[in-house]
Amino acid sequence: MRPDPAAIPPSAPAENLTDHLGMWAFLATEVLFFGGMFVAYTLYRSVYPEAFRFGAQTMEFGLGTINTAVLLTSSFLMACADRLLPTRRRAWTHACFAGTILLGVTFLAIKAFEYHSKVTHHLVPGPGFQNHSGVPTLQLFFVLYFAMTGLHAAHMVAGLGVITWVWRRYAKASDPAQAASPVAIGGLYWHFVDCVWVFLYPLFYLAGR
Amino acid sequence: MTPGDAPDYLSGRTSLGSWLGTLDHKRIALMYLFSITGFFAIGAAAAAAMRTALLFPAGDLIVSDLYNRLFTLHGVVMVWFFLIPAVPNVLGNFVLPLMIGARDLAFPRLNLASWYLFMAGGLLVLISIAFGGVDTGWTFYTPYSSTYSNGQVMAMATGVFIAGFSSIATGLNFIVTIHRMRAPGLLWFRLPLFVWSLYSTSIILVLATPVLAVTLLLMALERVFGVGVFDPRIGGDPLLFQHLFWFYSHPAVYIMILPGMGVVSEIVSCFSRKPVFGYRVMAFATLTIATLGFMVWGHHMFVSSESVYAGVVFSLLSFLVSVPSAVKVLNWTATLHRGHIKLDTPLLYALGFMGLFTVGGLTGLCLATLAVDVHVHGTYFVVAHFHYVMVGGMVMAYLGGIHYWWPKISGRLYHEWAARIAAVVIFAGFNLTFFPQFVLGYLGMPRRYSTYPEQFHALNIMSTAGATVLAVGYIMPLVYLTWSFFRGPLAGPNPWGAPGLEWQTPSPPAQHNFEVIPVVTTGPYLYPDNASADPAS
């Protein structure tokens, strides 16, 4: 039960558990949301392995790998912010938040650069798609690539909003403990988005390598 | 009306703004009640137009294209804007916190947001209807929906997509509420079965709805960019769409029926003045149906070039669903056995549910049988089957629940005899509408056509006549419940003498439900002559 608000201070652990459970339930939804696309990937990769091998070779392997490192580091800094918060080293905590967001934006910038290079190579699905591979189903690989990384990028943008919001909560709180729960819960979301990329990276960049 | 000085949730601030910005689960429930009644009327109007057209074999009244748009409208509106939200968002929203001794749901703001999402989705669907509607059927099968249909597919699919997030928000809210906000002493096995059914439903809402969302997203991307994952021209498989769609839409069938089963458990117990027979088995049967519901989607695709082996597995799994379902019907019957039965309106609806759901369930076994399904797939037999479950089951349970909790919601009683007559009229009208459709389907009349051979004329006339009776039955509660809301005699806190926590509050309840959070020491169905009914012991 939710405790009587008059009797128990708002940052009581019971309230936190409720909010945490809410986020975990939401993440379960998110897993299934991405899950539909992963099913599509699994089906087509098993039916058209050639298309995925060839498609992966057209990916910027270096950029994808750098981006993976960028995002993992971003998640690491978010975890640091969560852990530094109760120690009251405010400057360090702020630096972690800033680093999390900066690296998140870097990821999106590199991703945008990659998208741009796909556009210049006429590898965007649609009427302008130019297939020089001899694999007729190559376009399907790129449909999945743009759909899945695009959905991931949309989640990154939402995640950046969440991190900015919890950072603000932290900056405004007179007692950092008040922000502990939002920071932990916002962090969960950020780590989830990170986890999705941990699956996307091998599926698109390492397939057939 | 209320003891103490706390105003009830209906009085106090009554401006429009105080309703549109309310965080009170009871007010949000009423907002859902109004909205879904409106959507039900729209969906029903489409059905009425179709049944009128089907009075004549030649289909002169409505051309095929309009007919396609009408059955799509009927399906989309009834499934996503009535059946799915009906019991959880109206009755669940209202009574769940009351039943578990809480002052509100865990996330009241999310609850209000879910209503706004629901209305935004509904508005988009209405816009798509106003601009010509959609002719794909409610299933949005590709490649027709993504490539060929000239209807307002994008607007309608976006509307459904947004409404899906409203469902997810509600499901998430209920799960967290049931885990975290139960009154002291309210152990899991002391929860009313309605709460168990809402819990199971919420798990489906949270785990299945996102798959629908991503499926519609992929379909929409394909429509916008002219190329997509289901596109056969680049090697895509339209069957994948069907798999993903039914991975949501079969569990969605249980979203529609499980809460109704919970309502029936409450009503049967109350009006036979006995605890529900086999309480724990009922709770587990609810969870079992929810779990099995995720493993039977392939039975919608027996004739869609699914492999025979997949077909056999899905057929067997579909048969398994009948076990917990039958357990429920038998346990309700055992609950009635030797009870002090009072044939009041809610029980009439519950009995109607038991009979009609049983017919719907048994014909479901026919459809789960591979060879029989090949014969009747795509015929009116299927239409009759799912209407027996969805309308005969869910709508009966919903109306039963509305009548059962009406004194709590409005604080007033309705005219008992008018209500009893309406219940009987609905039961009769329903059977007259849909029983002939079993026969029509078995004889081979395909669904989704505006014309049919002369030999099916008589049965179609019967069905349309039944629909007229059904319409009268549905209008009756609208009239006497509205009257009751303003003029009905005061109900008092507990007109049925029911033991649930929700009946310990005044009617209508105060804004924060409980002055003092109750402490629970017994099971949910403690009637005077069953003093030791605690399933948790």
Show the helix and strand layout.
The complex is a heterodimer of chains A (209) and B (537).
Chain A: H1 13-47, H2 49-58, H3 61-84, H4 90-120, H5 138-172, H6 177-206
Helix pairs in contact in A: 1-2, 1-5, 1-6, 2-5, 2-6, 3-4, 3-6, 4-5, 5-6
Chain B: H1 16-20, H2 25-53, H3 64-99, H4 108-130, H5 144-148, H6 153-180, H7 193-225, H8 238-272, H9 279-292, H10 308-336, H11 345-368, H12 370-376, H13 380-410, H14 416-443, H15 457-487
Helix pairs in contact in B: 2-3, 2-4, 2-15, 3-6, 3-7, 3-8, 3-13, 4-6, 6-7, 7-8, 7-9, 8-10, 8-11, 8-13, 9-10, 10-11, 11-13, 11-14, 13-14, 14-15
Q: Could you characterize the architecture of this molecule?
A:
The complex is a heterodimer of chains A (209) and B (537). Chain A has 209 residues and is an all-alpha fold. Chain A has a single domain, classed as Four Helix Bundle (Hemerythrin (Met), subunit A). Chain A is 79% helix and 0% strand. The longest helix of chain A is centred in the N-terminal third of the chain and has 35 residues. Chain A starts with 12 loop residues before the first helix and ends with a helix. In chain A, 37% of the residues are buried. With 537 residues, chain B is an all-alpha fold. Chain B has one domain: Cytochrome c oxidase-like, subunit I domain (Cytochrome C Oxidase, Chain A), CATH 1.20.210.10. Helices cover 67% and strands 0% of the residues of chain B. Chain B is built from 15 helices and no strands. In chain B, α2 runs parallel beside α4 and α2 packs antiparallel against α15. The longest helix of chain B is centred in the first third of the chain and has 36 residues. Chain B is globular. The chains are: A mainly alpha (209), B mainly alpha (537). The interface between A and B is large, with 38 and 47 residues.
